[in-house]
Every structure is written in C-alpha cells, then in structure tokens.
UniProtKB/TrEMBL annotation:
Signal peptide, first to last residue: 1-28
Keywords: Membrane, Signal, Transmembrane, Transmembrane helix
Protein name in UniProt: Uncharacterized protein
Source organism of the structure: Kitasatospora sp. CMC57
Chain segments annotated as transmembrane: 251-272
Amino acid sequence: MRRHTHRLAAVTALAATLGLALALPAQAAEGGAPAAPAPVAPAELSAARSAAGSPAVLEQLGRFFARKGVPPTKSLNLAPADEARAAAQAAPRLTGDTVPVYTLDAAFVAGTAGAAVAKAEFVASKVVAADGQTASVWTVRQDGGWRVVNIATGGDETDYAAQAAGTGGGTVFREPQLNAWYVLRDGRVLPLDEDAVGSVGSAGVSLAGYQQLVHQRYGDKLPGSAYDRAGKGGGYEVAAPAAEADGLPPLTAGVAGAALLATAMTGVGLAVRRRRQDG
C-alpha cells in the first residue's frame, strides 16, 4: 500500500484554467448495464507525453522542483539566483508510462443507462528530479493538440496505474470526493489505497454494487440538484447507512467527513489535488 503524504498541487503558469475533460466516448453497454471507460489511444498518449516532455515544460519543472512544489504566487525564502541554480540542478526527466486519469462520472452516479463508471479527465506523466523529488504533469487535449495544464507533487496517477498493471490490469479511476483510488477489473471495483478500502472493503464490490453505493452517496448532490442550487457544493456530511449494497461495510468516520467537491463531478475544479497526511 502506497503511503499518503500531504502535498498540495501547485498550479503553474502553463495554463489559466483546468478541468478540460477529454472528448472521449464511453463504451456502449448491452442492456444499459454500467460500462468500462473507453481507453485512450496509444497515439494520443504518445502526443500527450511529448507535450509533457517539451523543453519549455522541463524548464518549468526545474523551477517547480527548486521551489519544492510551492507555487510561484507564494513567497519563498529563496534568492532568485539560488532558485535558478537549483532549477538547473534539478535535471527533471520523464519516467514510467504516460497514463489516462479517469474520474468517477456523474452520469454513472445518476444511474444513466450504459454510463461508464468514470471518464478520462486528463493524461498524466511522472517526472523525477535529480534529488528524488517527483511530480505529475497533467495534459489535456485542446484546440487539436495536447496542452500541459498543471504540475502536481508526487505521482499518484501513474503509481496507482502501475500498481494495477502489476496485479492483473484493469482500468484505474479515482473517486475524488474521498480521494479513493480503484481498479475496475473483470466487472468488479477493487481498492488500490486505504481510502478505497474504507469505501468498498478489501475485497471490493461488483460494478453494479458500486453504482448503487455512489448513487446513495452523491445522487442527490449532482449538478442541477437542489443541493447544488443551494450553493452547498463545497462539502457535506455523509450519514452512515445501516447497510450497503453488495454487502458493503458501513462508512467509516474518515469517509463520513469527506467533502464532496461538486465541480469534480463535472470535470472542473482540478486546480488543487489533496494528499492525506500519515498519522
């Protein structure tokens, strides 16, 4: 199990906005059953990786590592000359595979027939610095090409994809409201981190069971709902149910206090990624 540390995503000057969902079709499902997300073509992943590894982005990554992920909009006790020197010494390089990052889809939560469990929001490439720091470069397809829109500390996106690939494959996706990572494999939603274990148990649940679970959690809080219209999209308290679909355990206290980011259900609001702090 990968350790979680508290690291805030630093929004860089590479983009003015985030949350541009990839225009990828969901796989059709017979009989309206939940579907697996559509894969991203290898050629698209290659193009996204090229954008992430461009000289301009690598230069920006050097400054990112020099500042230890602190955004340029915040002050840092580091002289400009020292920052420039540290940026050059960072020598950032891409490592591992470039992967699509899937996020729980609002249509799936709503129970729309044939909706995929998640949709591709962006593509991530892991970068490592000479001193061992790591970062995730997010790219989206925009105006006919791939554009870097964010740099975040750490490498959850690619690390969990590698973890899933090493244990049987499948489609990795995230439930952002809980910061839980799962893999969809052979019709079951299996946990990849502690937050996901708290959500679906160590053995996971069927895809249909997971749909019932997330509908119970968020079905009345989707965009356009009374909850959304009341301006409560910043968070809510989950009442622990007496029983869950598909034999799920009751929600834990940690899950019950999780905030629902309503914008995350619509493919926007990706400017800050939260990491959990151990202990």
